[in-house]
Amino acid sequence: MVNFSSIKREITILAVLLFVAFIVRVLLFSLQGYPIDTNDFISWFNTAAEHGIRPFYSVAGYVDYPPFNVYIFWAFGSLANALGVSMASMIKFVPNLFDLATAGLIYVFVRKQATFKVALVSTALYAFNPAVIYNTAVWGQFDAVYTFFLILSLMLALKSKPIPSAVIFALGLLTKPQGIALLPLVALLIYKKNGWKQLAYSVLAFTATVFLVVLPFEGIGNPVTFLIKNYSTGYMYYNVTSVNAFNLWGLFALWMKDGYLFFVGWALFGAVAVFTLYMVHKRLKVSGDLIAVFAAFMLFFAFFMLPTRIHERYLFPAISVLALMFPLLKKARPLYVVLTATFLINQAYVLYWLNVSYPNAGPNLTGDPVVLAVSVINLIMFLYASVLMWDELKGRQSLKTQASKLSQTQQAGEPK
After folding, report:
1. Alpha helices, DSSP H only, in 52-86?
2. Domain segments of the chain as ranges
């Protein structure tokens, strides 16, 4: 029997936790991000609020953000003007709002697996994660926005809701192209849980969503060529080994022309992605949905570590999945602790040097002891995560034990 008083108490406690996390973030809004990023966002918010969505790309000048962002710029830019709030504050409000929504998703997912206290711990580990807060509340970046859509799409795929999952994933990809890392996993989950027919319908839903979002814009010509140009603009501009990401390439050189290393990096990512998907294919029915969650983390982590042209912020969505898994998968806990630290250091160190050098370009940190140390630690963590996957594939079920124990601790009278 459902205990409504218990549910009300849980919702109240969760709301208080998220409110406190929001206040903590607001108190950090005054800290300086990177002026170039901030000024770009202010311009885009003002342009969308003043001119609307339709002519945005015609009047905004240089814009390397995909189209769904424009809807966000317009909605919150208009809200800032209506409320008399500074646009700089609204810029930081947006990613933090989406970030706390992601924390709510984490709570819902974990609560289905374990007790209220365990779910609350996972939520707090994300809502108060210092690396996440630094990204959204200090730097004011928008990585939290696409992360929300990716996590929601993953959860919908796991719940056998293929069409909503495809639609939400399209919105995530139309917010930031980094979401492409999760595409093969979402497609595999839709197929394994629903079959080829639903996968085909999902592809149609994904395509329809993309066109519905893009078509209102004027002056873009062919939507397909527009998207290709939009996505490739920034990516082709940063044709270097690493754009301040302390990853595999950080061990050798940052800001070095990648050349043939571009293909090496993507080949390495492709190999890891294939292995990850194979592990999910073989073990999903045996070990359950948490294997797919770990696979999502592995794809995000590999996307940060292996390809060239990666920015320091691209580890962001991996932290959300690690917070979700923290109480459920014991052997994933070191990954959460260590990667939170390395991600925070990577962002803070880069932003410090960018601001010291502003308005000139930041220094090339190749060979810097901090870069080398963090890159080595990240590489060790990547190898550790790979070993966990290998153990799972071999049937040792190292990624299931703790989750099973937590499921068994669910109190008999507690609502699920």
Report:
1. 56-59, 68-83
2. 1-219, 238-406
